[in-house]
Amino acid sequence: MNDVLITPCISFQCRLLAVKMTLLGLILVSSALLAGLCTAGPQVLRVTTIKEEPYAMSKGSELEGFCIDLLSAVSKKLDFKYDIKLVKDGRYGTTDDSGNWNGMIGEVVRGEADIAVAPLTLTAKRETAVDMTKPFMQTGLSFILRKDLASDDSQFLSLLNLFSTEMWMGVLVAYLLTSICIFLVSRISPCEWEQPEKENNFFTLSHSFWYTVGAMTLQGAGPHPKALSGRVITSIWWLFSLVLLACYFANLSLWLHSDNQQQSIKSFEDLANQNLIEYGTIKDSSSFNFFKNSNNPTYHRIYEHIKKAQSYSLNAEEGFRKAQKGNYAFIGESVSLDLAVARYCNLTRAPEIIGMRGYSIAAPLGSTLVKNLSVAILGLSESGELDYFRSKWWASSCVAKNGKSAPLKPTSLNGIFLLLALGLGLGVFLALMELAAKSRKIANTQQKSCCSVMSAELSQRFRGGEAMTPESSEKSKA
């Protein structure tokens, strides 16, 4: 009976021991796996890209460019290493007749690359094959053409644009102050107006304004000042006018001889409504498909023309060369066209941008990397690093060669404005000194204070009172 009871107990203990051993084994295996993951280091991602300036360019055996800097910054934020290679077929990614993807998108779909870092346009079709991050750059469609193919006759106020608004305001203030100072000096100076009660003063306020305008136009308007104070002011104003006119005509000459950068063809509608300038884009690109799939009549007409004329370009560089060489407008991504304008100084981009879209990083469908990459891109945008990368790789080489005149600002002529201010002050001071000399002479004759005589003279000259002269003094005594 006891043997029968002992046997089940032993069997239960064996099973319990077996369960404990199994749990211990699982714990040991899990610990080993965790230890292996911890010692494995950062994940190494296979990255595919395409050689295109300035996103990825060869520098010896390595690559440099906007996308290379972006990849480096993102890897530091997410703590991963990467092995970057150029796409084998040199394409971005489209589907062939059988529906298979080529280019960088195809390599990501087939598992040959973990991510694609390049100027990949975020489209609905690509989103069905891969997952794409938040855009790291916004762009749109525009077109470039040679500057000498376009002309602009719509800027009626171009002559006013030679001076900045601040400059015109400064000239106006200088004109008003000078005219008022000439009027004041002609009233104050006894050399200009010896006997206010008998003579007429030719320098009224209206004549002062007219005289200043005449001096600025190099014509003059008599009569001219006779007093030293008035001649000082008018001489300084003539010098100021000469310098101002010289600067204006120099800017005008530069503007007339510079290449006109404004376009008579400013929009895609203008481009579609003319037949003098040929236009096209890269075949089977997202730009081409935009016009192909658009319901806008103007855009669809552009697609029909490109298809009929076969005015394609194999790549962006070929489109840039065509635009430089002849009668051709190349349609493409606005950021790429901005780079072309910065590199090739005889090209200009149309102001219109349509079909706004973004450039994104591509990863396989369902990849957990997309969320982290998007957060990293947003962080770089908020910190200003993406703007720094853009200014670094889109720096223009045409700044020094550009001959277009910029509006002249007052800071460029600080010296002549200062000289005019000193001249006006000196002129008014000399006029007061001339009046003071006459008042002192009268005061000595009449045995009065110089200040009272000078006050009476000023009152008489501005028609506020009667000056105390010897003749008037004798009449009052009588």
From TrEMBL:
SS bonds (residue pairs): C345-C398
Record InterPro entries: Glu/Gly-bd, Iono_Glu_rcpt_met, Ionotropic_Glu_rcpt, Iontro_rcpt_C, Solute-binding_3/MltF_N
Main location per the UniProt record: membrane
Start and end residues of each Solute-binding protein family 3/N-terminal domain: 44-397
MF terms in GO: ligand-gated monoatomic ion channel activity; signaling receptor activity
Family membership: Belongs to the glutamate-gated ion channel (TC 1.A.10.1) family.
Name this polypeptide is given: Glutamate receptor
Organism (species): Sinocyclocheilus grahami (Dianchi golden-line fish)
Gene behind the chain: LOC107595769
